Amino acid sequence: MLEVRDLVVRYGTATALDGVDLDVAAGEMVALVGANGAGKSTLVNTLSGILRPASGRVRLDGRLAQVPEGRQLFAALSVEDNLRLGAWRNQRSRRDPTRIYELFPDLVRLRSQLAGSLSGGQQQMVAVGRALMADPDLLAVDELSLGLAPLVVRDLAAHLAELNRDRGLALLLIEQETTLAFDLCSRAYVLEAGRVVATGPSAELRASPTVAAAYLGGL
Ligand code: ATP
């Protein structure tokens, strides 16, 4: 579904991604892990077209939606308006957020509240819900766990797993938190200084010294 080949992305003269290859098959859950500054956000922002690559190729069969790092909600708009904004490119019939409320029943009682008044976990639910309003085939989630309590993260992760299982949604989980990423995704890529330094089944990467080294290198 997603095929990234030899991708190079630069900020001015600084190379943020240096020949990255990455694949996500339809219905697959794949993690992209790496320390601070490894290039994870750069990759997602290139997939979604926010950044233009210097060279390389991105092929995507289907629609991508992104849950951006830091959630990026409209704080002064209601939960419901934030959700509706996620469907701005969809036909009229799909702008109804009912299915998002079915997935996240906690949002029903919050629907008229301003997004800026919600807890971090609630905001992350809205951010995921807003991305789902675009009816994606692939959902890229940038730092699901950032700033959230472990229980809240576990609940959100369970929702993502359910979406994958029940609706076949493919997921690219971009995470600094390797435990979460390896638990949720069967396969992972490890990014260090703009290069993929390890890839394979999460079970194998969990104990890999290369992964530990990638994190130490980023400190
Ligand atoms: P984090 O978890 O901190 O977001 P990351 O793995 O997502 O880290 P990126 O944000 O993609 O990493 O950054 C990759 C590299 O590109 C870093 O060296 C960073 O300093 C640099 N970088 C990121 N954004 C810019 C920018 N707008 N201008 C210049 N350099 C940038």
Architecture overview:
- By secondary structure, the protein is an alpha/beta fold.
- It is 33% helix and 27% strand.
- The protein is built from 8 helices and 9 strands.
- The chain has helices at 40-47, 79-85, 98-103, 120-132, 150-167, 178-184, 202-205, 209-217; strands spanning 2-11, 14-24, 29-33, 55-60, 64-67, 138-142, 170-175, 187-192, 195-201.
- The strands form 2 sheets. A 6-stranded mixed sheet has the order 5-6-7-3-8-9, sandwiched between helices. The chain has a 3-stranded antiparallel sheet with strand order 2-1-4, with helices on one face.
- A hairpin with a 2-residue loop joins strand 8 (187-192) and strand 9.
- Helix 2 packs parallel to helix 4.
- The longest helix has 18 residues, at 150-167.
- It is globular.
- The protein binds adenosine-5'-triphosphate.
- Adenosine-5'-triphosphate (ATP) is lined by residues 11, 14, 16, 34, 36-42, 69, 176.
- Adenosine-5'-triphosphate binds next to strand 2 and helix 1.
- InterPro entries: AAA+_ATPase, ABC_transporter-like_ATP-bd, ABC_transporter-like_CS, BCAA_Transport_ATP-bd_LivF, P-loop_NTPase.
- It comes from Cryptosporangium minutisporangium.
